[in-house]
Here is the input.
Amino acid sequence: MKDSFMPHYYFRNYLGVKMAPRKTKRAPRDTYNYELTGMFGETVYHGITNDPDRRIQEHARSGKTFNGARVSSARSRMRADSDETKAIHQYQDNNIFGTPPRYNKAKVKDPDPDPLGLFGRPSKRGSKKNNDFGFGKLF
Here is the structure.
């Protein structure tokens, strides 16, 4: 039974037919993640670009104050976008107030409107009888 030995680059499909793997094109790796840092090493901005030097100069000209920048290795656009979102969310999770870095405006988590539970459960439509407007009992 020589057929039982199969080179590592072959596989059998669901019908048991021996097949070679498909050659797929990889996404181009032409995008970089970068992080602008403040005076004490804190992150003030996370971003993605295909030309880090140009983009960092643009930030400096726009008036953003930062003391350094960290640039990642080249990666696909989809992975760079995913890594940027993860980095911003991780920053928010580690920050006591849940805010994004100073200059990031987009890609923020939805804040909890009532983190301390002071307003109770909102009613479905807001009761007109006790004028709670959907916030339930305040105290």
